[in-house]
What does this fold into?
Amino acid sequence: QVQLVESGGGLVQAGGSLRLSCAASGIIFSINTMGWYRQAPGNQRELVAAITSGGSTNYADSVKGRFTVSRDGAKNTVYLQMNSLKPEDTAVYYCSLAFTLTGRKYDYWGQGTQVTVSS
It folds into this structure.
Protein backbone atom coordinates (compact mmCIF):
# COMPACT_ATOMS: atom_id res chain seq x y z
CA GLN A 1 0.00 0.00 0.00
CA VAL A 2 1.33 3.42 -0.97
CA GLN A 3 0.79 6.41 1.28
CA LEU A 4 1.40 10.07 0.51
CA VAL A 5 1.76 12.51 3.39
CA GLU A 6 1.68 16.22 2.62
CA SER A 7 2.81 19.16 4.71
CA GLY A 8 3.46 22.85 4.37
CA GLY A 9 0.12 24.42 3.58
CA GLY A 10 -1.21 27.46 5.39
CA LEU A 11 -2.25 31.08 5.19
CA VAL A 12 -0.05 33.63 3.46
CA GLN A 13 -0.46 37.14 2.13
CA ALA A 14 -0.40 37.85 -1.57
CA GLY A 15 3.16 38.05 -2.80
CA GLY A 16 4.38 35.63 -0.18
CA SER A 17 5.82 32.14 -0.45
CA LEU A 18 5.06 28.65 0.76
CA ARG A 19 6.75 25.32 0.31
CA LEU A 20 4.77 22.11 0.15
CA SER A 21 6.29 18.70 0.78
CA CYS A 22 4.95 15.24 0.09
CA ALA A 23 6.59 12.02 1.25
CA ALA A 24 5.62 8.73 -0.34
CA SER A 25 6.00 5.38 1.39
CA GLY A 26 5.25 1.81 0.44
CA ILE A 27 6.03 -0.23 -2.64
CA ILE A 28 6.79 2.27 -5.39
CA PHE A 29 8.03 1.54 -8.86
CA SER A 30 11.20 3.50 -9.49
CA ILE A 31 9.99 4.97 -12.79
CA ASN A 32 7.16 7.27 -11.80
CA THR A 33 5.72 10.75 -11.90
CA MET A 34 5.02 12.78 -8.80
CA GLY A 35 3.19 16.04 -8.79
CA TRP A 36 0.73 18.49 -7.38
CA TYR A 37 -2.87 19.19 -8.24
CA ARG A 38 -5.21 21.73 -6.73
CA GLN A 39 -8.92 22.18 -6.36
CA ALA A 40 -10.67 25.38 -5.46
CA PRO A 41 -14.32 25.43 -4.35
CA GLY A 42 -16.61 24.95 -7.34
CA ASN A 43 -13.73 24.08 -9.64
CA GLN A 44 -12.37 20.86 -11.02
CA ARG A 45 -9.08 19.47 -9.81
CA GLU A 46 -6.31 20.75 -12.02
CA LEU A 47 -2.65 19.95 -12.54
CA VAL A 48 -0.27 22.46 -11.00
CA ALA A 49 3.10 20.85 -11.63
CA ALA A 50 4.59 17.41 -12.12
CA ILE A 51 8.05 15.87 -12.26
CA THR A 52 9.13 12.50 -13.55
CA SER A 53 11.71 10.25 -11.97
CA GLY A 54 13.98 11.35 -14.82
CA GLY A 55 13.59 14.99 -13.82
CA SER A 56 11.31 16.25 -16.58
CA THR A 57 8.83 18.85 -15.38
CA ASN A 58 5.47 20.14 -16.49
CA TYR A 59 3.66 23.23 -15.20
CA ALA A 60 0.27 24.80 -15.57
CA ASP A 61 0.52 28.06 -17.49
CA SER A 62 -0.90 29.95 -14.51
CA VAL A 63 2.05 29.05 -12.27
CA LYS A 64 4.98 29.12 -14.69
CA GLY A 65 7.74 31.35 -13.41
CA ARG A 66 6.31 31.39 -9.89
CA PHE A 67 6.22 27.76 -8.79
CA THR A 68 9.01 25.19 -8.87
CA VAL A 69 8.54 21.44 -8.49
CA SER A 70 11.45 19.27 -7.38
CA ARG A 71 12.00 15.84 -5.92
CA ASP A 72 14.37 13.81 -3.80
CA GLY A 73 14.41 10.35 -5.30
CA ALA A 74 16.17 8.75 -2.38
CA LYS A 75 13.43 9.96 -0.04
CA ASN A 76 10.52 9.53 -2.47
CA THR A 77 9.63 13.11 -1.66
CA VAL A 78 8.31 15.83 -3.94
CA TYR A 79 8.32 19.54 -3.18
CA LEU A 80 6.46 22.54 -4.52
CA GLN A 81 8.05 25.91 -3.94
CA MET A 82 5.40 28.58 -4.45
CA ASN A 83 6.52 32.18 -4.81
CA SER A 84 4.65 35.38 -5.65
CA LEU A 85 1.44 33.79 -4.48
CA LYS A 86 -1.86 35.26 -5.63
CA PRO A 87 -5.35 35.00 -4.12
CA GLU A 88 -6.36 32.85 -7.09
CA ASP A 89 -3.83 30.24 -5.93
CA THR A 90 -6.09 29.55 -2.96
CA ALA A 91 -7.12 25.89 -3.09
CA VAL A 92 -6.62 22.49 -1.56
CA TYR A 93 -3.37 21.12 -2.95
CA TYR A 94 -3.07 17.38 -3.50
CA CYS A 95 0.09 15.38 -3.97
CA SER A 96 0.00 12.63 -6.57
CA LEU A 97 2.09 9.64 -7.52
CA ALA A 98 1.59 7.63 -10.70
CA PHE A 99 3.37 4.77 -12.38
CA THR A 100 2.68 1.98 -14.81
CA LEU A 101 3.70 -1.58 -14.01
CA THR A 102 3.06 -4.63 -16.18
CA GLY A 103 0.56 -2.66 -18.22
CA ARG A 104 -1.47 -1.49 -15.27
CA LYS A 105 -1.57 2.16 -14.20
CA TYR A 106 -1.39 3.01 -10.52
CA ASP A 107 -2.52 6.40 -9.17
CA TYR A 108 -2.21 7.53 -5.58
CA TRP A 109 -3.26 10.74 -3.84
CA GLY A 110 -2.45 12.53 -0.64
CA GLN A 111 -5.10 13.80 1.73
CA GLY A 112 -4.73 17.39 0.59
CA THR A 113 -3.38 20.51 2.26
CA GLN A 114 -5.08 23.89 2.30
CA VAL A 115 -3.31 26.90 0.84
CA THR A 116 -5.01 30.24 1.42
CA VAL A 117 -3.65 33.45 -0.06
CA SER A 118 -5.12 36.66 1.32
CA SER A 119 -5.23 39.88 -0.67
Summary: The radius of gyration is 14 Å. DSSP finds no helices and eleven strands in the chain. The first strand starts at residue 3 and ends at 7.
